[in-house]
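Justification of resources, computational component.

The compute hours requested in this renewal are based largely on the per-chain cost of generating structure records like the one below. Each record pairs the submitted sequence with a full C-alpha cell output. That output is archived, and it is also reused by downstream analysis tasks.
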Amino acid sequence: MPATRPTTIQQRQKIMQLAQTGHSHATIAQDVGVSVWTARKWVRRTRAGDLMALVSHLGRPVTGTLAASSPLVRYVALRLKRQHPTWGAAYIVQKMQAHPGLHTQPLPHPVSVWRYWRLFGDRLFTTRQASEPKPPKAGVVHGVWQLDFKESVEVPGVGSTTFTQARDSVGCATVLHQVHPAPTAEQHIVKLTTDQVQADCRLAFTQWGLPDAIQTDHASIFTDDDPTPFPTRLTLWWIGLGIEPLRIPRHTPQRNGRVERSHRTLNERTLIDQQFRDAAHLQAQVDADWSELNTVCPSRAGDCEGRPPVTAHPELTVPRRLYCPEQEAALFDLRAVDAYLAQFTWVRTASAQGQLALGSHHYGLGRAWAGQKVAVQFDAPQRTFVFTVLPSRLTAGAETWPAITRPALGLSAPDLCGTIQAVPDPPRQLSFPRWLFDPFAENSPA
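The structure output for this chain reads:
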C-alpha cells in the first residue's frame, strides 16, 4: 500500500541498501512499506551511493552569489575579509587554497567572492565619498599652483619638521618651500596653523605674484568633513585675494602630481644622508636647492624639454597680479568673500542646548531649536546668517516658526587676513620694485 506520509531518512537508507543487494522495486516496496513508485524514485537517486542524495531540498533551488558553494567556503571568504579588510578577492581566494578544510572543495572565482561581499553592504565596506568633478587643467603659468604639506619628517639636527611646498602646474617651478620645525624636541607631529600657511603664501606671493587658483587635497586646514562643509579661514582669505580654491577628488594624490614629485625631490636632493645645525640652516639649504632646480638644472617635467623651468617658461618671472604684504589690505576684496558665501546652503543639527557650529564659531538659536535640522544661508547685504528649520523635520505647530538671523562671526577682513607682517628679507630672485605697488614711493620713475 502507498505511504500516506513522507518517507524518513531511515527508510530511504534501507531502500538504498536493498537496491545495492539486488532486490527488485516491488520487493523493496513490500519490505519498506512504500509504493513501488516511491521505491523506484529513491533507488534512482541513490544509485551512486551518495548519502547526501537521501536529503530532500524543499522549495525552490538556492540561488544567488556563491549559492553553489558550500557554507564553509562562504564562511571562510567572509571571515578572512572581516579579519583583513584591505585584502582583495583574488588574494583571499589564494589564501583559501591553504585552508585545511577546503582542500576538497571547489573554490569560487574572485569576482564571485567580491559580489558575495557586496551583499553585506556597509557592514563590510565603508561608505564611499560621492564622486567629485576633476579640477580644470591649468592653461597658463601661474594659473594654478599645487600646494601640499610633507608632514612630520625627522630631520637630523632639526627634529620633526613639516614642509610647505607649492608648484606651478604649467611652469613646473616650485614656488613655495618653507620649513616648520617642531617647537619642542618631544613633539613628533607637526600640524600647521592657518597663520603659518598664510605667512608661507605671503612669501611666495611676494616673490612670484598672485596665482589665479591654488589646488589642494582635502586636509582639514582646507576643508572640513561635513557633508555641507563651511569654508575654512584660509579658503576665504584666498577668495578675498582673488584666488580660486580648487580641490582634487578624494584619494587621488596623482592629481597633485607636480607637488607630490617636489616632495620626493626634496627628500632625495636635500634631506637624505644630510646633517643640519638648526632649522635656519635647513631653510637656507632648501632655498638654495630649489633656486638651483628652478633656474639652473635641466628638468624633465612638462614641456621643459630638458631646460630649467625658468628658462623653458620665462613668463614665470612675470607676475599675473602683483602683491606685497603692505598692500594686502587694499587688495583684499571682502565683497568677493560675501558673494562666495551667498551661493551655499549649509545643513546642521542643533545641539541639545539649541546651538550649532559654522566653521570655528558657534551660534545659539534657543532651546526650542534643540535637535532640529537647520538650513543656514548667508545674507550678503546684511552680513548675517539666516537659520531656518528644514520642512522635513518640522514638528506640530513649527510651521509658524520664523527664521532667525545672527551676525556673521569671524568674517571681517581683519579676521580673515590675520596679522599681516612684511616679509623681512624678500626673495631677491623675483623681487619687484616698490614703485610698482606705490607710485609715490622713493626711486619711482614718476
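Residues 428-446 have pLDDT under 50 and may be disordered. The radius of gyration is 35 Å.
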